[in-house]
Specification:
Radius of gyration: 20 Å
Helix content: 40-55%
Strand content: 15-25%
Structural class: alpha/beta
CATH architecture of the largest domain: 3-Layer(aba) Sandwich
Bound molecules: beta-D-glucopyranuronic acid
Number of strands: 11
Largest sheet: 5 strands, mixed
Distance between the termini: 47 Å
Order of helices and strands: HEHEHEHHHEEEHEHEHHEEHHEHHH
Strand order of the largest sheet: 2-1-3-10-4
């Protein structure tokens, strides 16, 4: 599987030039001239399986673009990490080797510092609060800000809240002490884990199952849908609902590709991305409930954290360390609370 992914990644670099030169048979020019009515076939990299809500959102997006360009722009969705793990995919999107992707804002923040604020623990009270912020001027500004990192943010998707799970019973904050916990590849996440007394092991998502199975790590953290669809629950049966983060998903396009599109195509793509959010969010809400029910039916022990104050106090050093960098955004997040 790994080998296959590496091969896919190498291949995508090789064909990248070809896709941009030919626009896949559509005659998009390489001179930088923006041709109206050009035909393209693009790829969209997605880490989740085909029926996962983000993948379904990607597909809705692709479908809308296809319809609204009368079949001129075809976006093929590659699910299940076929084109590589998120960090490697982001690098390829920066090069224009992969045109589109949907990734978590956490690894993305390693490429665009401004987005790091979205990984800070307990900054959103609820999904409603998060969405109020994401759809505000500041939320949109952050998507546009990806341009400084060779990408163009198109839309946010839902990802619920993240909580811890482990191979052995965890029922309180104290139980995390000394555990080796896998985190997404981001510095803020590593600091958060340390602040909670555990030991942070960053690793790509696709490697977590076997690391849990073999005991290389004691636990990890994610939302119900990922915990369920990745089968992590089969080897780590104890879930502690502390909801430490709400990290949105981001749908984005390579700036190298974006800059070659006509204004009309840009408009269609941006609008299609925004229109796909509704589908993704509806499917998310449904799948979040379904996966929780399936986890319970499979015998997973779910412990609710009734008082998050000790958790918030424990991660305060993380907020103190990064907060000043994000003063303006944190103010906007606070405003969205009211
Ligand atoms: C999931 C996100 C996915 C991340 C994964 C992770 O949807 O994009 O890759 O978490 O933990 O919730 O790496």
């Amino acid at each position: 599987m790994r080998g296959k992914k590496l091969f896919a990644a190498a291949l995508s670099l090789l064909v990248a030039g070809a896709v941009l030169v030919t626009g896949c048979g559509g005659g998009a020019k390489t001179t930088g001239e923006k041709k109206e009515g050009a035909k393209y076939t693009f790829r969209l990299a997605e880490t989740h399986p085909p029926d996962y809500p983000t993948t379904m959102g990607d597909k809705k997006f692709a479908e809308l673009v296809y319809e609204r360009t009368n079949g001129r722009i075809k976006i093929e969705v590659f699910p299940s990490g076929q084109l590589g793990e998120e960090k490697a995919v982001i690098e390829q999107v920066q090069l224009g080797a992969i045109e589109f992707t949907r990734v978590s804002a956490s690894p993305l923040a390693e490429f665009n510092k401004q987005l790091g604020v979205l990984s800070l623990p307990y900054i959103f009270d609820s999904d409603e609060h998060m969405w109020k912020f994401l759809t505000s001027d500041m939320g949109n500004k952050m998507l546009d800000g990806l341009e400084t990192s060779k990408m163009k943010g198109l839309a946010y998707y839902s990802s619920g809240s993240r909580s811890f799970y482990a191979r052995k019973p965890i029922k309180s904050l104290d139980d995390l002490k000394g555990l080796k916990i896998r985190v997404q590849q981001s510095k803020i996440n590593m600091d958060m884990i340390s602040a909670l007394g555990a030991s942070a092991t960053p690793m790509p998502y696709g490697e977590v199952f076997s690391a849990l199975q073999t005991g290389v790590i004691d636990g990890a953290e994610n939302n119900y849908p990922s915990y369920y669809s990745s089968n992590h629950y089969q080897v780590a049966k104890y879930y502690l609902l502390d909801k430490h983060q709400r990290v949105p998903e981001v749908l984005l396009v390579s700036k190298a590709v974006w800059d070659k599109l006509s204004d009309e195509d840009k408009k269609i793509i941006k609008q299609a991305a925004l229109d796909s959010v509704k589908t993704q969010r509806e499917l998310w809400d449904k799948f979040e409930k379904e996966s929780e029910a399936k986890l319970r039916a499979a015998g997973v022990t779910i412990t609710e954290v009734t008082d998050v104050k000790p958790w918030q106090a424990a991660v305060k050093p993380v907020i103190d360390k990064y907060g000043p960098e994000y003063k303006e955004v944190l103010e906007a997040i606070d405003k969205a609370r009211k």
